[in-house]
């Protein structure tokens, strides 16, 4: 009898089903936005988070705050490097026309849609960078290492120190304060960065210059 077979099929609860439908609807709306006229390819969320790559985008407010800080710190005609910090890069690109230049160093090749400003980057090979990326050629480097481990921070720190003329803005967990000071000489700021989805770990910003984040 057919009825007997039906009993073996696992049924989703109405709550789970509603949540799933809501998720698909949101996804469809986002896709619709992307194809509709006037879509901004630089807006946060235009490229979805990939949790398997330990990606967590900043909230709009945090990304704006960090982008504005970078512009001020870089100065007129300054160069800004975003290392594993794509949502700050996207916010900087929204300010197109301002007097600065920016590039993004990122493992996720989906960001290659940003053309020549995209540089493939694997923190496991911190100095495996293009020849045209000259040492100490950026006025400020903003970095958000993908993992809360000393190994990841130490390797990312090699990249940061290679790229920066001096100024560093690091975003990582509060538990990394000691290692951040050890490897980059940065101190914790009062500013508390937020993500578009709440993370379990407390997150903080660190700098090695007089910043507007205090």
From TrEMBL:
GO terms for biological process: methylation. One of its GO terms (molecular function) is nucleic acid binding. Keywords: Cytoplasm, Methyltransferase, Transferase. It is found in: Cytoplasm. The keyword Signal does not apply. The gene is Eef1akmt1. It catalyses: L-lysyl-[protein] + 3 S-adenosyl-L-methionine = N(6),N(6),N(6)-trimethyl-L-lysyl-[protein] + 3 S-adenosyl-L-homocysteine + 3 H(+). This is EFMT1 methyltransferase. PROSITE patterns: N6_MTASE. Coiled coil: none annotated. InterPro entries: DNA_methylase_N6_adenine_CS, Efm5/EEF1AKMT1, Mlase_EEF1AKMT1/ZCCHC4, SAM-dependent_MTases_sf. Pfam families: N6-adenineMlase. GO terms for cellular component: cytoplasm. SUPFAM superfamilies: S-adenosyl-L-methionine-dependent methyltransferases. Its main location: cytoplasm.
């Amino acid at each position: 009898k057919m009825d007997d077979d039906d009993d073996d099929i696992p049924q989703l609860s109405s709550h789970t089903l509603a949540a799933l439908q809501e998720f698909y609807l949101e996804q469809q709306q986002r896709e619709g936005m992307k194809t509709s006229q006037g879509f901004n390819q630089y807006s946060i969320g235009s490229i979805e988070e990939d949790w398997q790559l330990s990606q967590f985008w900043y909230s709009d407010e945090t990304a704006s705050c960090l982008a504005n800080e970078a512009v001020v710190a870089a100065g007129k005609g300054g160069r800004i490097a975003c290392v594993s910090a794509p949502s700050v890069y996207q916010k900087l690109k929204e300010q197109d026309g301002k007097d600065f230049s920016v590039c993004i160093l990122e493992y996720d090749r989906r960001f290659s849609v940003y053309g020549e400003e995209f540089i493939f980057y694997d923190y496991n090979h911190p100095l495996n960078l293009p020849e045209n990326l000259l040492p100490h050629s950026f006025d400020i480097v903003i970095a958000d290492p993908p993992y809360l481990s000393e190994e990841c921070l130490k390797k990312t720190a090699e990249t940061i120190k290679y790229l920066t003329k001096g100024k560093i803005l690091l975003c990582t967990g509060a538990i990394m304060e000691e290692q951040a000071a050890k490897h980059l000489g940065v101190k914790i700021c009062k500013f508390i960065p937020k993500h578009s989805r709440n993370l379990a770990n407390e997150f903080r910003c660190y700098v090695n210059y007089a910043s507007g984040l205090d």
